[in-house]
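Sequence and fold
=================
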Amino acid sequence: MQIRGRTVTLRAVEERDLETLHRWGNDPELWAMLGGWRFASSMAQTRAWFEGLARDPLNQRFAIDVPNAGLVGTANLIDIDWKNRNAFHGMMIGDPAMRGRGIGVDVIMATMRYAFDELGLRRLDGSMVAYNDASTAVYCGKCGWQEEGRQRDWYWRGGRWWDRIMVGVTEPDYRALIARNDYWAS
């Protein structure tokens, strides 16, 4: 199955993606912008992660494909809680040349449509490092998410502490956003 945005396609991670994902997984500049903590990983570790994907139904990982560019990043729905109908969403645009082109907006909108229309989830959560203004602007400015809190001094980056910004969106928030700007009609 593929999840289509206006331009992006979210698809299963394939073995052919591993070399690129391994390179991104070892890029300290990229990981400084993301909330998770990363250590250097070997190709064997990347392959083991890949092989575990099929056995993990509560953590869905997607490759982000863009026409004429191919793989440009990853997106996810993780910690899916079917009883309470929520999940955590994150994404990473690994190819620096593809940032700032609206791909993130399309990924988030496609992920919300899939989560709310196909999976029947009620809400999505996310988080970011306080200095990642681009992510905050995309999620909270363009995609209808709300800042729901901060955890002070959560991340240690660049020799100092940074807050963790927690964001969320509900299915009614998504419906209101669609009604206001008709994203999928254009």
Q: What stands out?
A: The longest helix spans residues 103-118. Strands lie at 3-4, 9-12, 60-66, 70-81, 86-93, 123-129, 146-157, 160-170. The two ends are 23 Å apart (CA to CA).
